[in-house]
Design a protein that fits this description.
The structure is a homodimer. Chain A contains five helices and three strands. The first copy, chain A, is an alpha+beta fold. Chain B binds a DNA duplex through helix 4.
DNA sequence: AAAACATATCAATAAAATTTGATTTGAGGT
DNA sequence: ACCTCAAATCAAATTTTATTGATATGTTTT
């Protein structure tokens, strides 16, 4: 079974590779197909496909098939849930503090 | 030289390991020293220290020395800048869209 | 139905991150 | 000064991720 920590970590794994951040930057200007992304990126087709899968699995990117092309775009719901998760994980909770080391 | 993608990726690297998320959860209830964190976590002292360094380097966690103890706590500015970065990386920009595949 | 094309998957390798135990550092206490 | 304790660093082994080239899948074109 996958722990909730593992599930949450997956979202951030998508963001922790510089190539994937470069891909996201390209998607900010709108939907792109693999061939378009590959164009200015010095990355092989299979490598790009590998990274796109990780981005899609995280929910941050969505894909759409059109004939033989796959188009990728940023997901608004993916973004919002990632932001919400990040906040949740890093914001102090309200319960009484347990002291430490005396 | 380190690219901006590499610098940004570092923040998310801190968040992409289930053990570090478990550590963050413990810090949500307030500042803790290493000994306290280790208590209920099935992790060795050196391993925990390794993870704490990564969390601190990312800016998400801050540390404070007190005698021979090191206390760790969530950083508010770390959180806010991580959230801002996440939003920036995943929000479409305003410039005109470049078409794709015709 | 064969050829051409876009993309995904696979398998082998290479690189990076994590774990573990041992050692070091640095702060108190005696 | 010496001992003890908390935590950091180091080095080796292991595990996880990423890269690369080859092959498979599915779609359009001829």
């Amino acid at each position: 079974m996958e722990s909730s920590y593992e599930r949450d970590a997956k979202v951030f794994k998508a963001l922790c590779d510089p190539r994937r951040l470069a891909i996201l930057e390209r998607l900010r200007s709108g939907e792109k197909c693999v061939c378009m992304l590959q164009e200015d990126m010095d990355i092989g087709q299979s490598g790009l496909s590998y990274h796109m899968k990780i981005l899609c699995d995280s929910g941050i990117v969505e894909s759409r098939q059109e004939g033989k092309w796959t188009h990728y775009r940023l997901s608004e719901t993916g973004r919002e849930s990632a932001v919400a998760l990040l906040r949740q994980l890093t914001t102090p909770d309200t319960s009484p503090k347990s002291g430490c080391c005396g």
